[in-house]
Amino acid sequence: MKPTELRNGIYWVGAIDWAVRDFHGYETPRGTTYNNYLMLDDEPTLVDTVKYDFADITIKNIKNLIEPSKIKHVVINHIENDHATGIGKIMPLMPDATVYMTERARKGLERFFDMSGWKVKTVKTGETLKIGARTLLFLETPMLHWPDSMVTYVQEDKVLISQDAFGQHIASSARFDDEFVTCASIQELEDAVWDYYANILMPFGQLIKAKIAEIVKLGLQIEMIAPDHG
Ligand code: FEO
User: Fold this and answer.
1) Whose CA is nearest to atom 3 of ligand 1?
2) Residue 128 sits in a domain of what CATH number?
3) Res. 151 pLDDT band, cuts 50 70 90
4) Residue 25 — very low, low, confident or very high, per pLDDT cuts 50/70/90?
């Protein structure tokens, strides 16, 4: 798959895993995707870095759009293997980039990577990063799906990059839910949504309700959700 523009200057640059059939111990008969996003702005920014085995694919997609060394910021919303381990191949290509993550994410990631040469900035709920025309707002979402997790909201575009939240395990050439429904069915999409929620997020249902209430209180207008799966 080539990069797909979601909104003006915001691109999906991820990878599709057609073959995976087991994820966190449950069956994934439809495979999955490892989504990540590149924003072309004054200070180009990459959000999430996919699974290590698929890093070459996202690097190729990034190179289709920009020379990786020009990327100024890398946001890690969640450090679990399928979202963050690609950073091992990606960081050497963008040595000047600053990496943004929660404090818990930093502590977790440094168990697996030598981060001594990286510029790392830890962020908390409510902190923002101006990358040009766009402003990124970070919101911590602990236990959704791990203690380190956060989401990134692109204020001007009203896009929520939600990592595991709102995901589905579906491998498809469709990048948008309405495209998927056209080529498959609404039933298959809904089944995948329920399967994902039941297996990954349901134990944290009370936390999810509280987090949604917090987001509503913040008054964020969300026009597009860009999850890291599906
Ligand atoms: Fe998609 Fe919590 O990993």
Assistant:
1) 80
2) 3.60.15.10
3) very high
4) confident
Identify the domain containing residue 94 by its residue range: 4-226
Strands 26-27 and 37-39 turn out to be unpaired
Active site positions, annotated: 24, 78, 80, 82, 145, 164, 196, 229
What are the pLDDT digits (tens) for 106-137?
999 999 999 999 999 999 999 999 999 999 99
119, two tokens: 């510029």
Q: Could you tell me which residues are beta bridge partners of residue 227?
A: 163
Query: Residue 12: what residue type?
Result: W
Burial class (CB in 10 A: 0-12, 13-18, 19+), 208: middle
Cα 176 to middle of ligand 1, angstroms: 20
Cβ–Cβ < 8 Å for 73, 90: no
Q: Structurally, how many domains does the chain consist of?
A: 1
pLDDT at 43: 98
